[in-house]
């Protein structure tokens, strides 16, 4: 098991970039500057869903790396170039599955500046990933690419194709689409965005997610693409009757309406017992 302790010592000392927060953002509401983790040398380190994200040397140095012991990174093209329709991502996925046993992979991260094609390609290969439980779409740091520039697409296919998925993290909202869907086992759903589109929130309100225990929305600000009519898309949690959320709702926003949203969720009978932050 990977532990953060050896990295966390003295990270607030001279030369530290951002103090590491050892908590999992899916288990607690971590401050925004603690989501991106740096060691004393400034080199990026990252864990996801309790697993270290595999670096390229993992396969080289481990003749038979444990597929269940890492979160495996894949890349979905370059947004500065023409969209290849998922060819780059599909090639990378096939290469990974030819190297490690896909039937034992528990976590994947789609790294880089785009995750636009990943959901559809992953859905087409769902039979090769029967134990996939955690997926991060858009794992890239702001030092490399602004969060509002990360390209997303329709994320619904992964929810439809992976009925045992427990966790889905989405970073960025450019092109983000969600359609109403029922998912019986999703427990953690996080949207890190510079502006969460209103149509995504409305679709979320029509989803049926009975197992959901942690919902986190980075609402952002209007200039970054958030719903511009204050609170309009966020004001009706009563419509989210399929989300039996009983633990945590987090709303991160630079606008006063974030507090309005938290209050409305707390007062909704569909979210009784909710801990909001």
Describe the structure.
The chain has 2 domains: 46-177, Leucine-rich repeat, LRR (right-handed beta-alpha superhelix), CATH 3.80.10; 179-277, no CATH class. It is of the alpha/beta class and 277 residues long. It has helices at residues 5-8, 32-35, 57-61, 87-99, 118-124, 156-161, 198-205, 257-267, and strands at residues 47-48, 51-52, 71-75, 107-111, 134-139, 167-171, 188-192, 214-220, 248-253, 275-276. The protein contains 8 helices and 10 strands. It is globular, with a radius of gyration of 18 Å. Helix 4 (87-99) links the parallel strand 3 and strand 4. Mean pLDDT is 76; it is low at 1-16, 38-44, 223-241 and 268-274.
User: From the coordinates shown, what is the CATH architecture of the largest domain?
Assistant: Alpha-Beta Horseshoe
Shape: globular
Top CATH class of the largest domain:
Alpha Beta
What is the percentage of strand-forming residues?
A: 15-25%
């Amino acid at each position: 098991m990977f532990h953060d302790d050896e990295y966390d010592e003295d990270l607030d000392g001279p030369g530290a970039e951002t103090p590491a927060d050892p908590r999992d953002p899916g288990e607690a509401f971590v401050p925004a500057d603690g989501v991106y983790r740096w060691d004393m040398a400034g080199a990026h380190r990252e864990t996801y869903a309790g697993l270290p994200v595999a670096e390229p040397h993992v396969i080289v140095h481990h003749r038979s790396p444990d597929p269940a012991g890492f979160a495996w990174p894949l890349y979905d093209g370059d947004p500065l170039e023409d969209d290849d329709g998922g060819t780059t991502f599909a090639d990378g996925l096939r290469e990974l599955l030819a190297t490690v046993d896909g039937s034992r992979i528990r976590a994947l991260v789609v790294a880089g500046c785009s995750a636009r094609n990943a959901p559809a390609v992953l859905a087409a290969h769902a039979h090769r990933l029967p134990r996939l439980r955690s997926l991060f779409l858009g794992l890239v740091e702001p030092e490399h690419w602004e969060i509002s520039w990360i390209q997303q697409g329709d994320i619904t296919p992964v929810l439809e194709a992976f009925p045992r998925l427990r966790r889905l993290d989405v970073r960025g909202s450019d092109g983000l689409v969600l359609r109403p869907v029922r998912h019986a086992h999703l427990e953690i759903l996080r949207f890190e965005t510079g502006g969460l589109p209103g149509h995504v929130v409305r679709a979320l309100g029509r989803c049926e997610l009975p197992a959901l225990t942690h919902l986190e929305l980075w609402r952002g600000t209007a200039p970054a693409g958030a719903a511009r009519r204050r609170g309009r898309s966020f004001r009706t949690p009563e419509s989210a009757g399929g989300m039996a959320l009983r633990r945590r709702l987090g709303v991160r926003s630079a606008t006063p309406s974030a507090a309005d949203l938290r209050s409305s969720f707390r007062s909704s009978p569909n979210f009784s017992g909710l801990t909001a932050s």
